[in-house]
Amino acid sequence: MSQSLSESQVTTRKVSFLQPIIGVALSFGAIFFATYLAGLKENLPLNLFAGVVLGYILTRSRFGFAGGIKRIYMRGEGSLSKSLLVLILVTSFIIMGIQWKAAAGGAVPDYLAADGQSIIPGTANVYFTNLATILGGFIFGVGMMLAGGCGSGTLADFGEGSGRALIAFVFFVVGAAPGQYTREVFDKTTLGKIGYQLHLPQMFGYFGAFAITVILLAVIYWIVVRYENMRKQEGTYLDPKGDYEDFELPLDNRDKASFFSYQTYHKLFVERWSFTVGALALALGAVFVLVATDKNWGVSTALVTWNVAIFQSLGFEFPVEYFQSHIDKVNAGLLSDGGTILNIGLFFGSILSFLLANRFSFNFDFSKKDAFYFGLGGLMLGFGSRLGLGCNIGAMYASISSFSFSGWIFLIAMTLGGIVGMKAFAGKVCILPHRIGKK
Question: What is the rounded average pLDDT for all residues in the chain?
Fold first, then answer.
């Protein structure tokens, strides 16, 4: 990065360390919380730790899955889109080794396993792909543009003090159970039974499945580069560093400072990570989740459980045939659910990142009209994610990285939904201005 800050430009950043002190206190609080969770289930502290790490990475690098679509369409600049491809590539490579070893030991994909058979890690995200997958992905794509973020992004932004994300997240939870119910009912219809379920290594072998993944990622990379070049030629391309806050830039005199100095603190906790660094760190975090919990990283499934917990307490009865597992989790206590703890950890990891950078603040600077669209976006996120059996994490990133055919279909549907959402609502909500160079 060519830009940097002089010492005088960061003077105001050195005055108060109240937020970092609160951040340190929060870290100790997380340790005590982990100790409590260990008394409930031994593996719950792993979920909490993984969530904190993932939330910190997302916030520190300003990494967002929704931004991979929004950024290149609005600005013509594909650095985040390319980093998402790096994330999927690295994760797929590592998971290939994990799955290949398990398969060599006799494990089989989750959807092919009989009782008592060992399951290949990550194959729970190999979903049956039907019309609901496409519709769910499309609805989710529109929703993440109105809400200003995806599943993980909404949680992370919520942790940063965003009022927009708070509204979107509440309605995300509200929309989750109806989406789950609709998918369960649809799958039992004649139309719902028309579809395909495939773990690519079952047809092409692990090397072949990885080669197909690489080829498809390379095709997307080529499309991104071609689109960037087109936007540059028409003069609607915005410089990739144009969205950096001044205080996130590196200090120009950090090499001259001692280790115990503000310059070092700035480097460790304030200076923004690049999207590529964020992608590599997220890949390690996602693989850690899989290895530590035997499940891929996901967000939306736990939100169905939260929906059930809230509405059950209000006297609403959920059909047992469709919500049995979620009812069981509620009866056992939400804090005993690993997905819930992972999401809580992600939320606090985002708070921690902003506190340590001395930049946490609440932001409710939007109109009632904007708030309506944020809520609508949240509903679409919740409903679409469960109709499609996952959000951009579980149904797209985790599925593609685990060599599921369904992940690619969800990606296409979600991308189309995102583009339609940006076109349809441009200028109608504060977070969706008109495309650069367009009126």
Answer: 91
Q: What is the DSSP string of 67-127?
A: HHHHHHHHHS--HHHHHHHHHHHHHHHHHHHHHHHHHHTT-B-GGGPPTT--B-TTGGG-P
Banded model confidence at residue 2, pLDDT cuts 50, 70, 90: very low
The answer to whether position 431 is within a domain reads no
Q: Contact at 8 Å (CB) between 426 and 435?
A: yes
Q: Which domain holds residue 367?
A: 15-425
390 within 8 A of 410, measured Cβ to Cβ = yes
* DSSP per-residue letters across 389-423: TS-IIIIIIHHHHTTBHHHHHHHHHHHHHHHHHHH
**3-class DSSP state of 41:** coil
Using CA atoms in the order 235, 239, 244, 250, what is the torsion angle rounded to 10 degrees? -160
* Residue 380 falls inside a structural domain: yes
Q: If DSSP codes are grouped into helix, strand and coil, which group holds residue 257? A: coil
Amino acid sitting at position 264: T
Percentage of the chain modeled with pLDDT above 90 = 78
Report if pTM > 0.85.
Answer: yes
